[in-house]
Amino acid sequence: MEKVEILVVGAGPAGLSAAMEAAKLGAQVRVVDENQKPGGQLFKQIHKFFGSKDHLAGTRGYEIGSALLKNTVEMGAKIDLNTVVYGIYPDRQVGIITADKSHQLLQAEKIILATGASENVLAFPGCTLPGIMSAGAVQTMVNIHRVLPASNVLMIGSGNVGLIVSYQILQAGGHVRALVEAAPQIGGYGVHAAKISRAGVPILTRYTIKCAYGTDQVEGATIIAVDDSFKPIGGTEREFSVGCIAIATGLTPLAELASLCGCTFTYVPRLGGMLPIHSEDMETTVPGIYVAGDITGVEEASTAMEEGRLAGIAAAAALGHVSAEKANLMKAQVWSRINTLRTGKFGQYRQEAKGKIMNERRALIVN
Amino acid sequence: MSTKLVTNGYLSDEEMADLLPTQARLQKGPVGVLECIQDIPCNPCEQACSFQAISIGKPITSLPVLDEDKCIGCGACIPKCPGLAIFVVDCSRPGEMGTVQLPYEYYPLPEFGQIVDAVDRKGFLVAKAVIDRVNIQDHTAVLTILVPKAFVNIVRGIRLIGGDRDE
Amino acid sequence: MRVHQHPILGALKDEVWVNIEVDGTTICAREGEPIAAAIMANGRLKLRHTRKRQEPRGVFCGIGRCTDCVMTVDGQSNVRTCVTAVKAGMKIQTQGMTGDGEAEEWKK
After folding, report:
1. CB nearest A198 (choices: B41, B61, B121)
2. Percent of chain B, pLDDT > 70?
3. A285 contacts A277 by C-beta, under 8 angstroms
4. N or C: lower Cβ tally within 10 Å for chain B?
5. What is the Cα–Cα distance from A205 to A179, expressed in whole angstroms?
């Protein structure tokens, strides 16, 4: 059976960051990803990131992605694409299906799960019509594959995904006829909303989608106002002719592997639902299995990269590649950057939620 | 804070009042307007200014504060803001026209001398404008447009051009 | 709709274009792009129909997780078109729910 010192599942921002840090410290690192290309969602992010210089603020997502990928490879981590991890067995044996469709069993000393999150579905009459897709799918099509699903789009959801993808649809030459948000407030950053407002996109809060219609694909949608209990208010319907409806109603961690291998979970609705708890070192309740990025709470690319770094340093330190003192110093620097990201009106609740997750893990260990 | 920004997606005139430059300053020359009112951890604008006219300090969730007297309206901060929330306005030119410098990341770019539709924060058409300058930095264009002076604190964009938008 | 020009990503150029066949019609695709993207660029969003009610379905997640986009590719059914790259001369067909002719059986 092939042995791997550190197996990283997922080559998105968290996984690559973990691999880079661990490889830099001298660990033998293998990254596997079921997709054809590495980078997770990072390469679709054509906008500039926020934060400080330490967080690479002002740099576009795909540039951060390219640099990260290059560094990870230069540090000696091996990246295997088109490779699926289907099971994690006791003592960290891992079942994978490789790119050439053959089966392999690996023995990993440490495993870092960085499998990200997937977008939520929204059910409404007509929701299965072709042309109705997740906002991430629109982003993938537009920014990676250079295809607009349709000229006229209705966006559902005003979190940063809905706001940013609306902007990116405009950049690709499309029109966003409206962005609807059931809550009374826009969920994402005001500056993202301001960009699309001045580009002529009406942002309609307290509205939701009533139904979509069309024959072979979506041709139009009806939206309706809702009250404070999110109940539709009859008589407030408005119609839009659109060939695409983008759904941006949140993400849920892809935590099946963590569940398979027995990690303890907790329920945090504001971070996406059921997610595996972890320590300050990103270690789960299963020794030797770490998590990083959206799998352990939906935040943003910047926090995913920092959590990845933590997991990579911690896993490498646990294997003796770096002294505990040096590791603590490195982790402290990462924590300083993470804590900065989790501040302000948008970061505060994430800081509290993450604190609760780590407390739960701590309580279990004490017992 | 329940502002028009979070309920509708644009800053209202009341919310803007504190951020606008004084009339006296507007007459002297171009000056920045930082339309940033949420405490997001972010400070590229502070780093971008060679004249130390923008202060954020620590924590970096602090809102940027512009020193009108240090600011010369060079616009270096405009393409650096990840939120594209910075503008430079000027009422010092003789005559009726003032200028607005704004970030623009769409295709196609307008050209020098082109007449465009200037819009307010809601995207409503308020005036015709003339493109005076197009300067691109890291894929973010900074457009300098000529608008009547009365509109320099109202105009924040131009109607997107090209393709089927010209219908 | 193909996005030929983009303010951040630049112009589409130096592309290799290949021909593929979808339900007997030849369409143009960028070499290496997912089948679903090529079909979408040519204006078609419906990729399959359900078995019982023959309802149309197309791309939902775009990253190979939901399987709403499956079609028969070079004789193999249930291929996820959003993560499968086009190759020159590929033959793609709309399938029923299971892609093995059951849709036709059901209709009888």
Report:
1. B121
2. 96
3. yes
4. C
5. 8
| Residue C105: pLDDT band with limits 50, 70, 90 | very low
In chain B the beta strands, taken as DSSP E runs, fall at: 31-34, 54-55, 65-66, 86-90, 97-104, 115-119, 125-137, 140-148, 157-158
Give the pLDDT of residue C106.
43
CA distance B138 to chain C (A): 8
H runs (alpha helix) in B8-155: 13-17, 23-28, 44-48
For chain A, the structural domain boundaries read 2-118+251-366, 121-247
Number of domains in chain B: 1
pLDDT beneath 50: ranges in chain A: none
pLDDT at B23: 87
**CATH architecture under which domain A2-118+251-366 falls:** 3-Layer(bba) Sandwich (3.50)
Q: Into which CATH architecture does domain A121-247 fall?
A: 3-Layer(bba) Sandwich (3.50)
**Full set of structural domains in chain C with CATH:** 17-97 (3.10.20.440)
Report the DSSP beta bridge partners of residue A203: A179
pTM given for the model: 0.95
Closest partner residue to A343 (CB to CB) among B10, B61, B85 is B61
- Name the β-bridge partners of A147: C2
Q: Which pLDDT does position C95 carry in this prediction?
A: 86
Range of the domain at B9: 4-166
C65, A128: Cβ pair inside 8 Å? no
Best mutation target, B105, B107, B137, B138, to test chain C (most C CBs within 10 A): B107
Contact flag B105-C5 (C-beta cutoff 8 Å)? no
Chain B residues whose beta carbon lies within 8 Å of the beta carbon of residue A185: 2, 6-7
Q: Are strands A203-205 and A175-181 parallel, antiparallel or unpaired?
A: parallel
At residue C51, the pLDDT reads: 84
- Judged against a pLDDT cut of 80, whether residue B163 lies above it is answered with no
Q: What is the ipTM of this complex?
A: 0.95
Burial of A333 (0-12, 13-18, 19+ CB in 10 A): middle
